[in-house]
Input
Amino acid sequence: MNRKKLDDNRDITSCGFVIQTAVGRGKSKPVGTAWQPALNASGYCAIMLGGKKRSLHRLIWEAFVGLIPAGYQIDHIDGWKTNNDISNLRLVTAKGNGRAFRRKAFGASSKYRGCSWMKASKKWEAYIRKNGKRHHIGVFIQEKDAAIAYNKKATELGFFPEALNIISFNK
Output
């Protein structure tokens, strides 16, 4: 676990701990105390720093990698907003972040991303979202075939590997 100086009174670790290193003015924690981040409205860990609420994943990136260029975001590779280990963070564009890991929607008819059951035809549809629009890929008898078609199209469009379906070919 690596540590970097966050400010005059605090260090930050590569896995997201903020540790008090000196006593500051105002409401200061004892030296050696780890700060407890709070979840912001979007579900990201955040701490107060200099009177401003800052996202922990962005602070970690800036401490260990450098400034975040304009037009870029920090993505959690595994999709978990609270896993702020530096090895789980990457620099992406907004477009790239939109193509990254997505959990299956609650109540979805398929266990795979980009697939849904069509009651009328009793078949599986494969689709993908690009630039905010839903694009039809094809209709399939088997759910796995629809998932494979989604993966192929997602790969063609440059989606991150984490956005692909994990398909088991065992019975």
Summary: DSSP finds three helices and twelve strands in the chain. The chain has a mean pLDDT of 86. The first helix runs from residue 56 to 64. Residues 13 and 22 are 16 Å apart (CA to CA).
